[in-house]
Specification:
Layout lengths: L5 H31 L8 E6 L3 E21 L5 E6 L6 E2 L4 E5 L2 H36 L5 H33 L2 E3 L4 E3 L9 E2 L8 E16 H13 L11 E4 L12 E6 L9 E8 L11 E18 L4 E2 L5 E6 L5 E12 L2 E6 L6 E5 L11 E4 L13
Parallel strand pairs: 1-19
Antiparallel strand pairs: 1-18, 2-9, 2-13, 3-5, 3-8, 4-7, 5-6, 7-9, 9-12, 10-11, 10-13, 11-12, 13-17, 14-15, 15-16, 15-18, 16-17
Helix pairs in contact: 2-3
């Protein structure tokens, strides 16, 4: 067995410490390099809400104008001089309430004359009736000729007709006498009087004595584009839109410029069957209760017309929906292993601060609503649940 030479052993003794020093220096450099390298950043935090499908009522905001429920112009039906005005201008009146008194003297005299004529006709008819009864007995014994009997029958019939004519004449005279008191044809509020005591009025004159306007209930005439109306009807026919009660659509008035809302709801009474050619709109008429007279004819208003409800829809915050360059809409969802994915959706309309989404989403999915600028497709994120903002029940189609 060979042994190392003394010179080789001496060389090894010198080389081993040097190698150890080099090894220690390399390890220290690796440690410093590892300490100097930055740690990998954690996944970015994004806020999400858990989607829940819901029944969403849909309404359309339409412009409109109020109109009186009924308007009646009060006119005389006889000639005469106005003796009295029996109401206060601007007051509420009831149907049948006396408004004017026309001088009745002439018409009272006509009634008395008609009564006298009726009495004369009745006396003549009574005489002819008695004579006819006697002639019936005589004709049975052939004591009078058939011609005489026929003459008596005709005279009695003529007298009966005269009685009927006199009764009709008396009724007409009494009607004219009743017309000397001009009454209110409807309930409502009466305006200014166009005549005063002493004025001569004539039957069916062109100028109204006064005008009565019924304000409770009151009409609100709305206008809707024909295209929107057709889309709503098609959605109802296809089952995409449901009217839960199957009744007329509810209508609410928007608050005015000062923020004052109208407390009563209305109902759509009917829609026009013709489209206005110059504007392409269809007229809708709603009826509103107006017990306090707050609404006056001629006011411009904006109303929300309830079209129906959409089943199993989602309200997505507008900030969470993204538009692609081609106009299509999509959202970011947090999937398995907290990785985001892009999902295309179908947007129906804006409702308040949300978008109404009808296709593309499912209940229980996590929708990214905050930190969208930090997400990338299939990238991992740190999900943080946020409290969803309260949604608006119904809003205009926009």
């Amino acid at each position: 067995m060979s042994t190392l030479s003394p010179s080789l052993l001496h060389g090894l003794r010198l080389a081993l410490p040097l190698a150890a020093l080099l090894l220690l220096a390399a390890c220290d450099q690796q440690r410093q390099t590892a300490e100097a390298a930055p740690a990998a950043p954690p996944p970015p935090e994004v806020g999400f809400v858990t989607l829940q499908s819901q029944r969403v009522p849909v309404a359309t905001e339409l412009p409109g104008r109020t109109a009186a429920f009924r308007i009646a112009e009060v006119r005389p039906q006889i000639d005469g001089i106005v003796q009295l005005r029996l109401f206060d201008e601007g007051a509420a009146v009831e149907a049948g309430q006396p408004l004017y008194q026309i001088d009745p003297a002439v018409y009272e005299a006509r009634v008395k004359a008609a009564e006298a004529e009726l009495a004369r006709a009745q006396a003549a008819q009574q005489s002819s009736g008695t004579r006819l009864a006697r002639y019936r007995q005589l004709i049975e014994r052939s004591a009078v000729s058939r011609q005489d009997y026929d003459d008596v029958v005709a005279a009695d019939a003529e007298n009966r007709a005269a009685v009927a004519a006199a009764e009709a004449q008396l009724e007409s005279a009494r009607i004219d006498l009743d017309y000397t008191v001009v009454t209110a044809p409807i309930d409502g509020r009466i305006g200014r009087s166009n005549v005063s005591e002493g004025a001569l009025v004539t039957a069916n004159q062109s100028q109204a004595l006064a005008t009565i306007t019924q304000l409770d209930p009151i009409y609100v005439d709305l206008t809707q584009s024909s295209g929107e109306l057709l889309r709503t009807r098609r959605a109802l026919a296809a089952g995409r839109l449901h009217q839960p009660n199957g009744s007329e659509a509810r209508v609410t008035l928007q608050p005015d410029a000062e923020g004052h809302g109208y407390p009563h709801e209305g109902r759509i009474q009917f829609s026009e069957v013709l489209v206005e050619q110059s504007t392409g709109t269809v007229g809708l008429r709603a009826v509103f209760p107006n017990p306090d007279g707050e609404l006056m004819p001629g006011l411009f208003v904006r109303a929300q017309v309830e079209q129906g409800e959409i089943e199993s829809a989602f309200l997505v915050p507008q900030a969470a929906l993204v538009r692609a360059p081609d106009g299509s809409a999509f959202v970011w969802l947090i999937g398995s292993e907290n990785r985001v994915e892009r999902r295309s959706v179908s947007v129906n309309r804006a409702i308040g601060g949300d978008w109404l989404v009808t296709e593309g989403l499912a209940a229980g999915e996590r929708l990214v609503v905050d930190g969208l600028q930090r997400v990338q497709p299939e990238a991992a994120v740190t999900p943080v649940a946020v409290e969803p903002a309260p949604s608006v029940a119904a809003a205009p189609a926009g």
